[in-house]
Specification:
The structure is a single chain. The chain is α/β, with parallel strands linked by helices. The protein is 47% helix and 15% strand. It contains ten helices and seven strands. Strands 3-2-1-4-5-6-7 form a seven-stranded parallel β-sheet, sandwiched between helices. Helix 1 crosses helix 8, helix 3 runs parallel beside helix 4 and helix 4 runs parallel beside helix 5. It is globular. The termini are far apart. The structure holds NADP nicotinamide-adenine-dinucleotide phosphate. The site of NADP nicotinamide-adenine-dinucleotide phosphate has 30 residues, from helix 1.
């Protein structure tokens, strides 16, 4: 980012990847941050610890009025300027389809897809006005490959990726760069990956929120179209297309059970 004022809004900034992203962006001269999530105390603490101006808004992004509240906050506190929108807030509630049914799919879609689309719709006029500007959508490797008990989460991230790619093409002529980051296993409050971190032979596949934050920086201000974190996770996406039956065999076989994780949402 250049040293003139650049306003960046990060959703899900109270913990994990969003918090690490706020800390990473705050290092860039001229940055002003808007931190969004539900837990106000965590947002306030983070804002007060950052080396740049940071405001916060405690809001449930699935609420009907959330997008307008965020927009009103930007108008009131930052003169309606917005140069970077990081759509990061999200969660997972593991369940098979037989157990969770449509209710579990709906819950994932409401937060991981609908809330992102609704917020982007409300803020796109500001991003266009501030162009060159950027949107970063935090998807997931689970938006490329699906495993047992992650179907509802994967469906929401597959949807996000499809929408992201279309928006990339549509907004390019308007100077709004749209990119995405696809994390693999990252140890956070919502995705603790405890089962993987407990075993020596799976511990190495779990990465840190700071690495995702750096990728978000590369995609947003840096202008990349997409980044897997860690990078080798791209192989899972490639093999799903090139070797579908092999990928299916691996993901439904015995070794795949070592990749089963519980989430903070449960
Ligand atoms: N960690 C991983 O392994 C992993 C892998 C792939 C993709 N991702 C994606 O990365 C993103 C960030 O996840 P994370 O790993 O950093 O998990 P996290 O630490 O649990 O962070 C999730 C954030 O979303 C916020 N949030 C949840 N529900 C919300 C709601 N209804 N309204 C507003 N904010 C809400 C939470 O804050 P409040 O509770 O304060 O609202 C929190 O700040 C998610 O989109 C996730 O799907 C994570």
């Amino acid at each position: 980012m250049a040293s003139r004022k650049r306003v960046a809004l990060v959703t899900g900034a109270s913990t994990g990847i969003g918090k690490a992203t706020a800390i990473r962006l705050a290092r860039e001269p001229g940055t002003e941050l808007v931190l969004v999530a539900r837990r106000e105390e965590l947002l306030r603490e983070l804002a007060e610890s950052l080396p740049c101006r940071a405001t916060w808004l405690a809001v449930d992004l699935t609420a009907a009025e959330a997008p307008e509240r965020v927009r009103a906050h930007l108008e009131a506190e930052h003169g309606g300027a917005l140069h970077l929108l990081v759509n990061n807030a999200g969660a997972a509630w593991r369940a098979s389809f037989a157990e969770g049914g449509h209710d579990n799919v709906r819950r994932h879609m409401e937060l991981n897809f609908d809330a992102v689309v609704r917020l982007t719709e409300a803020l796109l006029p500001l991003l266009r006005k501030a162009a060159p500007s950027a949107i970063v959508n935090v998807a997931s490797t689970a938006g490329r490959v699906s495993r047992a008990r992650t179907g509802a989460y994967s469906a929401s991230k597959f949807a996000l990726i499809g929408w992201n790619d279309s928006l990339y093409a549509e907004e390019k002529p308007n100077g709004v760069h749209v990119g995405m980051v696809l994390p693999g296993f990252i140890a956070t409050e919502g995705f603790p990956a405890t089962e993987l971190r407990e075993k020596a032979f799976t511990r190495w596949i779990v990465s840190e929120p700071e690495k995702v934050a750096e990728a978000i920086y590369e995609v947003g201000p840096g202008g990349k179209a997409e980044r897997y974190v860690p990078r080798p996770y791209a192989l899972a996406a490639i093999s799903r297309i090139l070797f579908p039956s092999l990928t299916r065999r691996v993901l439904t076989g015995g070794p795949a059970s070592n990749l089963t994780t519980s989430t903070g949402g449960e």
